[in-house]
Write a structure and sequence with these properties.
By secondary structure, the chain is of the alpha+beta class. It is built from 2 helices and 5 strands. The mean pLDDT is 89.
Length: 146
Amino acid sequence: MSDEFFSDLDKKLKNQANKNEMGKSQDEKLLQKVKNITETVTPLLNDYKAKLSKRGITAKLSVYPAGFEFKMFYKDGGEHGIKLTRSVHSKKYLFIGIYTNDDGKKFASEGGGPNITKFSIDVFEKYLQNEINDYLYYAERHRGIK
């Protein structure tokens, strides 16, 4: 009776180990995808940062081993931007909007950006342009652009 129990237990443990190994492999592939996306968008983001600067908009780009953050700033200290990072909620990599509310509190919004598994630079650039337009739309609430 105990032999049967431990035989079943061994099967369950092996099955669990296989699932963990598959999960690690998928995480590694996704991490490599994020690194590739970051390398692809960094020149575009640097270009936009320079062009925004010429127009009086302060933008900052931070590049990390697994993602990036691109923020534009308001006169009242608020910010508006995007980042590619691992979600604290779902543990998946995704684009997250980073904002400052009218009351000065910072918040993040998940799920509004391009799908990283079907990434396209053209779709990303359109997303970036939309975020810049949103930044300008909300600028008056934050005493203007910085």
